[in-house]
Design brief:
190 residues; mainly alpha; 7 helices
Length: 190
């Protein structure tokens, strides 16, 4: 994973040499949107991991931190004002603030609802990234968005996999019982 991040950063740095100095209004707005949208994903997944303890949320939250750092690179490269507010769950875009609040509420109801929140976030990211890619011919921005898109597609696959596991409560109960038996056997020295 660290190797992929390192390679991605090297590619971004090398592409920055060729970056166009002037962005369109749509490109600027897209970069700022993606910065907060990636933060939203990270913050929601961090909250849901703390609530439910399911590793998929922690793993993808870490990845989302890398994504938000990557978009921050574009903000610095093009000397844009970073919209990210300090603190978890705080957004300068009122629509994203409202979305965050509703996703946290839904994800707190049931574990399956939390996984559905992950699916919804990744589907939103994919939709927005595909649209933003179509709005630019800037190779640096396209490369970043394509990398983010690939990550979101992987995240969506992971959440869909978790959904298929947790949608059948009997299977989850059987898996939990097996895990509890394994822990009890380890603790008893068997």
């Amino acid at each position: 994973m660290k190797k992929i991040i390192t390679i991605s950063l090297i590619v971004l740095i090398s592409l920055s040499i060729f970056a166009a100095g002037v962005l369109t209004k749509e490109e600027e707005e897209g970069i700022l949107l993606m910065r907060e949208e990636e933060k939203l994903a990270r913050d929601v997944y961090t909250y849901l991991f703390d609530l439910w303890g399911i590793d998929v949320f922690a793993n993808i939250s870490d990845s989302e931190q890398t994504h938000t750092d990557t978009v921050e690179y574009l903000i610095e490269l093009y000397d844009l004002e970073d919209p990210v507010l300090p603190g978890v769950g705080k957004f300068s875009d009122p629509a994203l603030q409202e979305l965050y609040n509703s996703l946290i509420e839904k994800g707190s109801e049931l574990l399956l609802s939390a996984i559905e929140v992950g699916i919804a976030i990744e589907e939103l990211d994919i939709k927005d990234l595909e649209e933003l890619i179509s709005q630019t011919d800037n190779p640096t921005i396209i490369r970043v968005y394509e990398n983010l898109l690939a990550g979101s597609e992987n995240h969506l696959e992971a959440f869909n996999s978790q959904y298929s596991i947790y949608q059948n409560p009997d299977d989850v109960q059987d898996n939990n019982q097996m895990q509890n038996n394994n822990v009890n056997n380890e603790n008893s020295g068997k």
